[in-house]
Amino acid sequence: MKDQSESWSAAARIYGQEFVDPYLPEVRNPLQPALQALVRRGARTVADLGCGLGPLVPFLAEHFERVWAVDFAAAMLEQARSRCAAPNVTYLQRSLLDLKPLHGRLDVAVAVNSLVLPRVTDLDAALAEIRRCLKPDGAVLGIVPAMDAVHYQTMLLIERGLAHGQPLEAACKNAAHHNEHAAYDFALGQYCFRGIEQHFWQPFEVRFRFAKAGFRLTQLKKVHLAWKQFAGWRELARYAPPWDWFFLARRAGARAASAP
Fold this sequence. Notes:
The chain is of the alpha/beta class.
């Protein structure tokens, strides 16, 4: 399998055109208000874990005293650096599986569409690393791609086909094509695009894995995305758009036992 950091670096050039953007003006994204609330409560140090092209880094540099922008893809970091050269920002090329320079240093960790490691054992290991980075009262927040939203859009696309008079079989085939079902493993929550393998989350899995890693989940809510980024949006725009999941969790005092 090709190194995922190489695949993400190769995607840096086309990222804005090919990947769903949670920062578009149409998106009601609770991330920045939540970060501002943490600053008001005394948070001073933050890391953007999987910062990508750096869309969040200027905001973090403005509100926090010390910022680390972390990504394992060199081309992503290069573009992030060009976007924000604030003196309180340090750029680190690291995997989420090895964050030793940040252990015990963070009030806040942010992970926006970066907790997508395709192996669930690596997801567990990444969450454990994030926990090690946080101070005892630290918080982690961010966004993960939603597998249940893919099912939702599939349903709407099938309904669109039926409304146009398609037989059910044809409507299902058309929905599968436009929603890229060939790229998904729905049972395991996996998605593969141009060599990039990503994990998509169900809400129950967010609760399970964060508890397993020793976090207390305090918020889990839908981030409804911009319809224009999805197939069939002009005809489906009367419905609520697909979503990602926003989460906010606190570092628990003792490691939580896993539970279904």
